């Protein structure tokens, strides 16, 4: 299983999701599962995750070593699932995928769709918020979504 998390600039939500998912892979001994994250814009390429995202991960015993990058065409063929965080992410991912020949086999989905609560389907971008409250909200949505995804797709022991 190969999973890619995507947000606008690969600096907050997607690196947090990648860190959470890496933790779940280790915790559940899913040795053949892989994960990464990417952005739709190149604003932060080569940088680490945003400071508040790293701080929040650290509060939960996690960390991100991720260096930001932009999604590539190859990602659509390599990953089984590509998760966007909001409507604009999903729309842009679908527009890219529609142009690919041959069609890419990946599934493009909202990460928040695994919460089965319409009000939590969108994981809002916390970047422009003041303080940490929006980062906490995004983290909780990401963590629960990732946990539910793993529960649904992990092989039975």
In short:
The chain is α/β, with parallel strands linked by helices.
Properties at a glance:
Rossmann fold, Ptyr_pPase_sf, alpha/beta, 157 residues, 4-stranded parallel sheet, 40% helix, 5 helices, cytoplasm
Q: How would you describe what is shown here?
A:
There is one protein chain. It contains 5 helices and 4 strands. It has 157 residues and is α/β, with parallel strands linked by helices. The chain has one domain (2-153): Rossmann fold (3-Layer(aba) Sandwich), CATH 3.40.50.2300. The protein is globular. The model has no long low-confidence stretch (mean pLDDT 94). Keywords: Cytoplasm, Hydrolase, Protein phosphatase. Residues 1-152 form the Phosphotyrosine protein phosphatase I domain. InterPro entries: LMW_PTPase, Ptyr_pPase, Ptyr_pPase_sf, Tyr_phospatase_low_mol_wt.
């Amino acid at each position: 299983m190969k999973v890619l998390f995507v947000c606008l600039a690969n600096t907050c939500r997607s690196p947090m999701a990648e860190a959470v998912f890496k933790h779940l892979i280790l915790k559940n001994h899913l040795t053949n599962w892989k994960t990464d994250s990417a952005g739709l814009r190149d604003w932060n390429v080569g940088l680490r995750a945003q400071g508040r995202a790293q701080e929040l991960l650290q509060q939960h015993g996690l960390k991100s070593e991720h260096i930001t990058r932009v999604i590539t065409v190859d990602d659509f063929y390599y990953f089984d699932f590509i998760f966007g965080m909001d409507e604009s992410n999903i729309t842009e991912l679908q527009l890219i995928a529609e142009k690919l020949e041959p069609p890419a086999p990946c599934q493009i989905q909202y990460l928040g769709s695994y919460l089965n609560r319409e009000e939590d389907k969108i994981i809002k971008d916390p970047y422009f918020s003041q303080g940490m409250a929006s980062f906490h909200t995004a983290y909780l949505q990401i963590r629960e979504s990732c946990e539910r995804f793993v529960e649904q797709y992990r092989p039975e022991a």
